[in-house]
C-alpha cells in the first residue's frame, strides 16, 4: 500500500462520514446561502470549530462562484489554512533533545516508541528517558519499546525525580555520542505537585547539560477528544514552548476537522499524525496529502497507484 493510500485508509471514517457530504454539496451547480450554511454546519461537526469553519465559508463564498470547480476551491482554502512555518531546530552537535508532553491517555508513550523507530530507520542512535515516573506502567511500557526498537533506555524507576532522569539521559547521550533523546514526561501527577511546574523543572535541568535543549517540544493530542484537545494544548502552551503537535488516533474518529482548528487557533504546526496501530503508522504530516485524503474524489482513489 502506497504512502497516500495508507493515510487515506487511516482517514476513511473522516472522509466517508462528514467530508463525503461536503463533497456532495459542492457538486451543485451553484452554491447558494443555504448550501453554504449546510457545508458550514458539517465543518463544525467535523471538530473544525465555529471560528475556523466560518472563516473557511467566507473564503469559499468569495471564490467558489468564480470557479468552475468549487471542490478544488475548498481544497485550496484548506491547504492555505494548514500552511504554517515549521522551524526545525538542528543542534550543531548531537544529541537532538525532544521533550514529548501531553495528558495521560493521548498515546504519548506509544508515540515516543514509534518516533524512536523512525529515527532508527534513519540510522540514528536513540535514547529514551522514562521521566513519567509517577506511573509504573509508563516506565515499563517505555522499556518494552526500547527493547522492541533496540535503543538505549534510561530510568530510575517509579517515584524517582523526573528531572534527575532527564539529566541522566541527556548526559548519557552527550557522553556516548548518541543522536537523539526522546523524553517521556508525566501527563498527570498523583501528588500535590503541580504538573506544569514539574515539566518546567525537567526542561531547566536539561539546559544544565545542553543550554539550548530541549530543541523540540512535541505536544501529543488524541484526535478523538476533539475540541477538548485544544483546551489541553492551551494549558501546556502557557507553560512550555510547544514547537509541534502530534495528533494521534485519527483513524478512530470521523472528525478530522480538528487538524484545521489546531493550526488556525493555536498557530502551531502539526508535525506527525497517527493513522493506525502498527509501529509504522505514525506519519510526518503533509498538508496537501491530508486535504487530498479527506476530500479526494472516488476517481482519484481508484486511479491511485
UniProtKB/TrEMBL annotation:
Q: What keywords are annotated for this sequence in UniProt?
A: Cell cycle, Cell division, Cell membrane, Cytoplasm, GTP-binding, Hydrolase, Membrane, Nucleotide-binding, Receptor
Q: Which GO terms describe its cellular component?
A: cytoplasm; plasma membrane
Role according to the record: Involved in targeting and insertion of nascent membrane proteins into the cytoplasmic membrane. Acts as a receptor for the complex formed by the signal recognition particle (SRP) and the ribosome-nascent chain (RNC).
Show the catalytic activity.
Answer: GTP + H2O = GDP + phosphate + H(+)
Recorded family membership: Belongs to the GTP-binding SRP family. FtsY subfamily.
| Its EC number(s) | 3.6.5.4
Query: How does it sit in the bilayer?
Result: Peripheral membrane protein
State a single Pfam family of this protein.
SRP54
User: Which amino acid positions bind GTP, per UniProt?
Assistant: 102-109, 184-188, 248-251
Q: Which PANTHER family match?
A: SIGNAL RECOGNITION PARTICLE RECEPTOR SUBUNIT ALPHA
Q: What is this protein called?
A: Signal recognition particle receptor FtsY
- Annotated localization: Cell membrane; Cytoplasm
Is Cytoplasm among the key words of this record?
yes
Q: Which NCBIfam families match?
A: ftsY
Checking HAMAP family in the record gives: FtsY
